[in-house]
């Protein structure tokens, strides 16, 4: 009976591990078009946010737009771009903090910096693909 339990336990563990392994391998890398679209969408949202800030849009709306851009940039999934994406995300975070603190000039500078960083990401990605 003791041997039967060991065999049963070993079988259950083996099946569990193979199920986890196949689930993990089922996650596909994003395609070139997916990453390209994510970069373009993020860039467009940052540009839209800059325009809104320049037009005097309410700071809560601008802060929400910055949050949207930060969410969009999460779809830029590429090992080569991860460091630059994280750096650009931090700049967006600084812009959002500046908007919330009513430091609009600092927010404009941060958003312009972020826009330039996403353009650089776009150019780097295009050069590698």
From TrEMBL:
Q: Does the keyword Signal apply?
A: yes
* Keywords from the UniProt entry: Signal
Q: Where would one find the signal peptide in this protein?
A: 1-26
Superkingdom, taxonomy of origin:
Bacteria
Q: What is this protein called?
A: DUF4398 domain-containing protein
List the source organism: Candidatus Methylobacter titanis
Lineage of producing organism: Bacteria, Pseudomonadati, Pseudomonadota, Gammaproteobacteria, Methylococcales
């Amino acid at each position: 009976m003791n041997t039967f339990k060991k065999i049963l336990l070993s079988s259950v563990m083996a099946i569990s591990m193979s199920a986890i392994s196949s689930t993990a391998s089922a996650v596909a890398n994003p395609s070139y078009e997916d990453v390209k679209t994510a970069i373009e969408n993020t860039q467009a949202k940052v540009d839209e946010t800059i325009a809104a800030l320049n037009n005097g849009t309410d700071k809560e709306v601008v802060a929400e737009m910055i949050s949207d851009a930060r969410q969009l940039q999460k779809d830029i999934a590429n090992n080569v771009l991860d460091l630059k994406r994280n750096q650009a995300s931090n700049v967006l975070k600084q812009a959002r903090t500046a908007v919330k603190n009513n430091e609009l000039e600092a927010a404009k500078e941060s958003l312009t910096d972020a826009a330039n960083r996403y353009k650089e990401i776009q150019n780097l990605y295009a050069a590698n693909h």
